[in-house]
Specification:
mainly alpha, 13 helices, two-stranded antiparallel sheet
Amino acid sequence: MALTLNRAILDDLYSRYNRRAYVHPDPIEFLYDYDDPADREIVGLVASSLAYGRVVQILRSVSTVLGRMSSPSAFLRSASRTSLDEVFADFRHRFTTGEELSAMLYGAKRVIEKYGSLRACFAHNLKDHDDTVLPALSAFVDELTTATDARHNNLLASPRRGSACKRLNLFMRWMVREDDVDPGGWQDVPASKLIVPLDTHMHRICLALGLTRRKQADIRTAIEITAAFRAIVPEDPLRYDFALTRLGIRDDTDLDGFLAQYRRSSAPICG
């Protein structure tokens, strides 16, 4: 059976929860402190790459990194690989080491030197015929890792290896979409090509909504779920991502109540 989504209920959810008041605690809040796009894209890369584990730990780790960078773009311009290793030698976020973090930041520095910005690098690798951002995202990871030969940096998963790439797709959502929550700035990347940042929480919600039957939260599942959202909002398939991920995370939301309302008001989604 074809996928069917109740847009009216999703739009109501969006209008209620897609607001700054519902952002905390979420690492996107760090981006709001930076008006300069050159700073913001670096902050977004750091905040999204560390967005795994307990949220309190995520916020603490991102705050630690940014506290050592002052103006992120100026910091990277003057940094060397050796100085980055020294600055972050004692850093650790779960299984991420300071060496991995400094390698990613050095890769970002080299990309910015080559293209002028992270945005310009990504746009260079995005082709008009690409249905999604995934080919460009793979090339983007290659660009970030080539400078340090860090092909297996745990901070930078590649779609080529089958990962859902939740953190990089989250970074893309922050950089491309623009509304009360997502600050945007990468206008030359179409929001229509974004892929849902799929983690276990979003996977459970989408299973409950009938948007997929796949049991693995991998890139194939992320593509399938995105296609379901794109069917009703072709120009902005990630429109409901932030609002849906508030459900069941914040104490002032009601995931079970939303799902019950959705089932009462919607046609069967999967046959």
